Amino acid sequence: MYYDFTVPVPEVKGKIIRKPKGDAVYVLFQFGQKYNKEKKYSVPQRTIIGKLHDSDNSIMYPNEKFEAYFPNNAMPEELPEAYRSCALRIGSYAVIGKVISEYKLKEMLFKRFGDDTGLLLDLVAYMLVNEENAGQYYPDFAFCHPLFSEGMRIYSDSKVSRFLNSVTKDQTIGFLDDWNKNRDHSQRIYISYDSSNKNCQAGDIDLIEYGKAKDDKGLPIFNLAIAFDKTNRVPLFYEDYPGSVTDVSQFVHTIDKVTEYGYKNAGFILDRGYFSKDNIRYMESEGYAFIIMVKGCKELVSSLVLEHRNSFETNREYSIRSYRVYGKTVKSKLYEDDSEERFFHIYFNPSKQAAEREQLEVKLDKFKLYMDKHLGEEITLGKTYHHYFQLTYDKKGHLLSYKERDDVIHRELQLCGYFCIITSEDMAASQALIHYKGRDISEKLFSADKSFIGSKSMRICTSEAMAAKLFIEFIALIIRNRIYNLLKETIISLEQRPNYMTVPAAIRELEKIELVRRNGGSYRLDHAVSKRQKVILSSFGMNADDISTISIEIDKLLKDNQALMDSDEETDEEGI
After folding, report:
1. How far apart are CA 546 and CA 2, in angstroms?
2. Residue 448 confidence (pLDDT)
3. Do residues 276 and 217 share a domain?
């Protein structure tokens, strides 16, 4: 990313290269050379450190690499007061501050981050409000929002970059230790564990590798997992690990981490991706229960589904009306040499049956259409085609004909609409389903992380910055999850389901609460709090009077710290 201020182009003889590309001229720094054995000569090693100013070729807009290779060059850390808007949006600031206070996040973070705590919380608020994780846009956010930093300082994007690269493992791990230490370890909880992966541009990052991506864009990835307390609806911790490491192999280390955090009376809610004989045995050896969901067509449970098919689907005794399914519990071993029988909860969903059958029919139609186009041609078809069809080739590999495998398709049609939940503890089918459905919240967390916080990709080039951004995202998810839960509780109490009570919609509505700077320099509320905004604020135990109080505090804080900001600006260059 390129910063929004200029610096002189460094004067290093023979090392600075100006390279035009498109409408811009980029400044490259030659930091070394590497001998090429094949070509038998040295190849210069260069990197972009900035982009020339449009009208003055003696100055440039620097980037992160400039800071790395020219650390002694002066760069501004704070932006002047002129960069603060005359209209400040305070609604989201008030709500986010309320959650921070409720969880005592500022105190826990200050223990690890000291004076940088305010900037960290500002970056958290920026991610939540702007649904964005690109650091270069933070100054634009700070321009028109109250801030949690001391004196509501507006830091430059270069300061943000330095902060991200300064965060250490000790700080993030220390916070996670404190966060989990404050939980009630005697309470019976179910931990929902889920993982995803993120794309990342190739840079000086240890974790990124080419692996099996869920959204494959041909880019290197890393994996991210979140453990979530389903019982209390709170994220517990997160893990990042290399892109080539599978979820199954990583899960053993997750169990160890749960044990280290002191969660003894707990169970895990997982999907099929974490199932392995070793993981099951390890969980039980550590005293943890488990709940695992498996699709009805999977080999693990398909024979069991077929065995009990037509024994409960129309019997009202097995109806679970809240989820519009029928469920039956049977006992069986999970694998041949299993030490004991498990509880298999078999479910049938009539509407899901119709949808899955239609999906299968559509898939078969597409296969047939494709094969019809290539009859008589030399073509190699994948395993899926061989699974559903008997294919006939001539000696030269030309596709001559195909025929449906009636037994295979008949079996899959029978299994449509069925799924299974396996538990280590004895419980009713309805109870197992309720536990597993609670896992939807952890899946919403990943939706929040990738969609609402703009983090499908990590826009950084160093391991330190990536670790810092992941940590900031986790803090943002803690706060966003609390906002989501409180809004949801309010919706339940309302007669209608207003469309402004989702997290992004509520934040957009709160952003309309503004302070405006009058001629005397004081910030005052521009208008009264609306009816919608009052409903949203009530979810957090707040009202219009609280907004008035906060607006007065913001105005006083900005007045008291005006001189402080100006004097800091004069000494910035000496302190860098």
Report:
1. 39
2. 54
3. yes
pLDDT, tens digit (0-9, with 9 covering 90-100), for 480-494? 989 999 998 999 888
Distance, in Å, from the CA atom of 255 to the CA atom of 257, rounded to the nearest integer, reads 5
Q: Which of 44, 38, 130 is nearest to 92 (CA)?
A: 130
Same domain, 423 and 407: no
**Res 115: pLDDT:** 93
Q: Please name the residue ranges forming H helices in 104-219.
A: 105-113, 117-130, 138-143, 157-166, 169-181
Sign of CA dihedral 114, 116, 118, 122: negative
Same domain, 203 and 296: yes
Look up residue 252 and give its two tokens: 């053993």
Distance between CA 10 and CA 58 in Å, rounded? 9
Q: Is the CB of residue 42 less than 8 Å from the CB of residue 61?
A: no
d(C-alpha 551, C-alpha 559), whole Å = 13
Closest CA to 288 of 261, 255, 239: 255
The pTM of this model reads 0.72
pLDDT surpassing 90 at residue 168: yes
CA distance 113 to 36: 45
Q: What is the pLDDT of residues 315-329, one digit of tens each?
A: 999 999 989 999 999
pLDDT one-digit tens code per residue, 55-90: 898 999 888 788 888 887 766 666 555 568 889 999
The pLDDT score that the predictor gives to residue 107 is 96
Q: Is residue 43 one of the residues assigned to a domain?
A: yes
Please report, for residues 121, 240, 469, the alpha-carbon distance to residue 236 in angstroms, rounded to integers and kept in the order given: 19, 14, 17
As for how many domains the chain has, the answer is 4
Amino acid at residue number 561: N
Instruction: Please list the residues that pair with 28 across neighbouring strands.
Output: 17, 48
In a domain, 449, yes or no: yes
In a domain, 369, yes or no: yes
At 189-209, the pLDDT tens digits run 888 887 766 555 444 434 444
**Structural domain of 211:** 171-349+418-461
- Report d(CA 199, CA 514) in Å as an integer: 37
75 within a domain of the structure (yes/no): no
pLDDT of residue 214 exceeding 70: no
Which H or E run includes 241? strand 234-242
